[in-house]
Amino acid sequence: MRVVPEAGYWSRIKDKCRFWRDRRTIWIILCGLQAVLGVSAVSTTQGSAATTLLALIIWWGACLSCEDVIIELKGKPSILAAISGTVILIFCSWRLYATYHLDSIIYALFGLQGLALFLVGWPIKHNWRKAQKPVFILSLFGLQLLAQRAIPMPFMTRATAKAVEIFLALFDFQILSQGNKLVHTGGSLIVVDGCSGLDLAIQLTVIALIFTIVFPLESRKRLILAVVLAPLIAFAVNCIRVSLLTLIHASDLSSRHELFNFVHEQWGGLLFAGIAVSVFGWIYLHWIERQIRTGAS
Amino acid sequence: MTLPAKQATGLLMGLIAISTVSLGAVVLHPRRMQPPARQTFARPTQLMSGVRKAEPLPTEPTFMQRGNPQDIARGEGKQWSVVLEDGRELLLTEMPLRVKSFNNFQLKRMKQLFAINGDEGGRTKSQAEGVYLVGSDQVLVSQTPKGLRAETCITANNIGSVSQHQLIQAVRDIPLSRQERVESMLGLRQPREWQCLYVAVTLESATRDFTEATSAWRFLRQTTGP
């Protein structure tokens, strides 16, 4: 007696194979690989957890922004788009491999990757608008470099020190700021680039821009406010962090060195980054909810 | 005119293959992932990054060359004594720069910047005309007829006490040679930035710590800027 396979068994396997042969699936895998490639290159060459985190945020934002568009993907590009996309993608893949930290080009490669991925997925003629959002979000990686070049660090560090002095004075702590130095009775601390909060401000600004693109607010005033508010929240949270560091340094706790290191090093920094993002997210969601409620009424 | 279905699938598959190879190369590249050869060098102090404990600024150091003349003739083993005004003495020992752990691309850039004559073994000729102490990091910037040169790495006892203002002073003393090349390669604009860049890249070549070199550069840019 022959055992006949259950009806639909082969067709299910065939369906699965079809899924993996589907150009949309292949395209998504390609995007995933390019994203991992980009983030890995940043992580291995830039030597900064904040920059790697920013790279992750940016790819996450790009992914969110093209969620609706992917359904329409046929994976049949025009010949011209396919050739140009392939050339750009090969260039990006090679350049990400050949990057080291002094190369500013890595900040432009994400945008190029996005453009190339779009080109190999769609016929360009009638679909250019679909690519705008993800390509723009991926280009935001360059914001980091722009901010580092444009924002004067002495201003940032002095402003942080001054803000910390004012913040701690509210709670009757006698801390004096002299330039970028915070002086207390038992010693002093210098706020230098790493603690100026610039990285956090850039991260939060990028998140704000992603939010405004992916979950747009109808009120233009609020849109602008969200983008302006993000770096201010980051600055405020960073000031709280530096204040905490100053208090720990000035204290006579037995575990003050461990505490200082925790708040100062990356885990503590990430904790404060998380707080800043949560505060911003809460405000933005509140606005979205209000918008939905107004729409419903 | 769109690409036929089969060719479009093939193209995407091909790109996946290229991306996978690139990803593998980025992640597994031994030189890239290899930690800097720190055992050769003393750990740089944390002067340039994060919040640090402030230290009183010592006064200008005086230099005094020591060391075995034979070693010095071979271009290694020079010792520098830096006597600070408060009586403390820093003893700096010159070591050859090892260029082995740089990949070819980085090495090419380094050679362009500093005209390093090092071979694979990492030995460099010592032709320093002038020697500058640069800050608390283990760096000796040398001026040669060809321009600046990152030829040495310094290990020092008590190195953490060397101050920022020595660093700034040293940067101000560095002559502005090879500016055009640096500008064309890195797109910098201000003369002060060029000066700072030299030091930052020198720091990089000596300590192999890219993050600290970058933040050192930023620090210098802010302190020596117009």
Notes on the structure:
- The complex is a heterodimer of chains A (297) and B (226).
- Chain A has 297 residues and is mainly α.
- In chain A, α3 runs antiparallel to α7 (128-139), α9 crosses α11 and α11 (220-250) packs antiparallel against α13.
- Chain A is built from 13 helices and 3 strands, in the order αααααααααβββαααα.
- Chain A is elongated.
- The relative contact order of chain A is 0.09.
- Chain A has helices spanning 9-21, 23-45, 49-65, 67-70, 79-97, 106-119, 128-139, 142-150, 153-170, 198-214, 220-250, 256-264, 266-296; strands spanning 176-178, 181-184, 187-190.
- Chain A has a 3-stranded antiparallel beta sheet, covered by helices on one side.
- The mean pLDDT of chain A is 84.
- Chain B has 226 residues and is of the alpha+beta class.
- The longest helix of chain B is centred in the N-terminal third of the chain and has 24 residues, at 5-28.
- Chain B has helices at residues 5-28, 30-33, 69-73, 104-114, 164-173, 179-186, 191-207, 210-224, and strands at residues 52-53, 62-66, 79-83, 89-96, 130-133, 139-144, 147-156.
- Residues 30-67 and 71-226 of chain B have low confidence and may be disordered.
- Chain B has a 6-stranded antiparallel beta sheet.
- The chains are: A mainly alpha (297), B alpha+beta (226).
- β3 (187-190) of chain A pairs antiparallel with β1 of chain B.
Quick recap:
With 297 residues, chain A is mostly helical. Chain A has 13 helices and three strands; from the N terminus they run αααααααααβββαααα. Helices cover 73% and strands 4% of the residues of chain A.
Mean pLDDT across all residues of chain B, rounded? 42
Subunit arrangement of the protein:
heterodimer
- Overall geometric form of chain B: elongated
Neighbour order of strands in the largest sheet of chain A? 1-2-3
How many distinct helices of chain B? 8
Strand content of chain B: 15-25%
> Radius of gyration of chain A from the CA trace?
24 Å
Q: Tell me about the largest β-sheet of chain A.
A: 3 strands, antiparallel
Low-confidence parts of chain B: 30-67, 71-226
Q: Helix-strand pattern of chain B, N to C?
A: HHEEHEEHEEEHHHH
N- and C-termini, Cα separation of chain B: 57 Å
**Number of DSSP-assigned strands of chain B:** 7
Q: Name the chain pair whose interface involves the most residues.
A: A-B, 56 and 49 residues
Helix content of chain A: over 70%
Average per-residue pLDDT of chain A, rounded, comes to 84
